[in-house]
Amino acid sequence: MPLTPPVALFHDRLVPVEALGLGPDNRAFRYNDGFFETIIFVDGQSRWWKHHADRIRKGAAKLRLTLPDNFFERLHTWLGQLVAANGLSRGAARVRWQCWREGGGYYAPDSTAATWLATAEAQEIVPPGSSGGRAGIAETVQSSPSVLAFLKGPNAALYTLAGLEKQARGLDELILLSPRGFVAEATTSALIWLQGNTLYTPDAEATGAVSGVRLAALTTQAAAAGWRIRPVTNRPNYLELADAVATVSVTGIRWLDQIENHRFQPNPVRQAFHALIGGQ
Q1: Rounded to 5, what percent of the chain is helix, strand, coil?
Q2: Which of 73, 74, 118, 140 qualifies as a FRET site for 37, CA 20 to 30 Å off?
Q3: What's the confidence (pLDDT) of residue 26?
Q4: 23 or 166: which carries more pLDDT confidence?
């Protein structure tokens, strides 16, 4: 009998969301011992799956989590079934896949086995050329370079603080700096800036930025089209020299209109890049 939405994927089974029960010994709850991915499906097809799989593989290895055989092919199938079971095969859907360690123990765990939970909901995709509004430089929070900074989840509290500062200052976006004062990322997105035919992005390892899936796909596409790609460690004043600055996430690309007191205007460089990415 078909399940009635909302439906979740728990390990390899589709279950009603209301039937989920995660106990108080859950290591994701107790120790944040895991990570998550946000995966976009459009008309039942995943976007940028290879890049998601690469980050999951790297994250599991770093956390010493053991994934089953043929895991990525099977997970991709299960997530497609999850989207369909929630009636989201037409249009865009947002899947959140959370992975954590099974077993017990305190900070030293007694298992390397991984388990996971995924949910799906409708998602609005940002139209091409959308505005990211007005951004400011973070004053109360910084990025946190570490061996896990490339993952989504381990530094979640920092992004919560960034979101609170953004709200308090009435901004549309907030740009985080590294402890050394280099541009790192936005609250929930990667950053790019364009100057001539060069695409700049923060060096993720040096600045502690999340290794964005959409950013990886975008830089590959831009490089193939002849753009120079430069991961850098730059102070925020360098952004004022750019022809355009944008936030990049799996839900879309947003062009910032203003950073602090500096305003950006549409120009041929931004238009050329917009032509490259088309409707993506």
Answers
A1: 30, 35, 40
A2: 140
A3: 78
A4: 166
Residue 246 CA to its chain's centroid (Å): 15
Q: Kindly give, in sequence order, each residue whose CB lies less than 8 Å from that of residue 45, ignoring residues fewer than 6 positions away.
A: none
* CA-CA-CA-CA torsion sign (94, 137, 184, 99): negative
User: What value does the mean pLDDT of the chain take?
Assistant: 94
The structure's pTM equals 0.93
Spatial neighbors of 198 by CB under 8 A, at least 6 apart, are 227, 228, 229, 230
- List of E strands, 6-110: 7-10, 13-16, 34-42, 45-46, 92-101
- List, as own/partner pairs, every contact residues 59-65 make where C-beta atoms lie below 8 angstroms and the sequence separation is at least 24, other chains included: 59/35, 59/99, 59/148, 59/150, 59/151, 60/99, 60/114, 62/147, 62/148, 62/151, 63/33, 63/34, 63/35, 63/101, 63/148, 64/112, 65/34, 65/99, 65/101, 65/112, 65/113, 65/114
In angstroms, the CA 62 to CA 147 distance is 8
Instruction: Measure the CA–CA gap between 39 and 248, rounded to whole angstroms.
Output: 14
Give the Å distances, CA to CA, from 25 to 15, 31, 104, 210: 21, 10, 7, 28
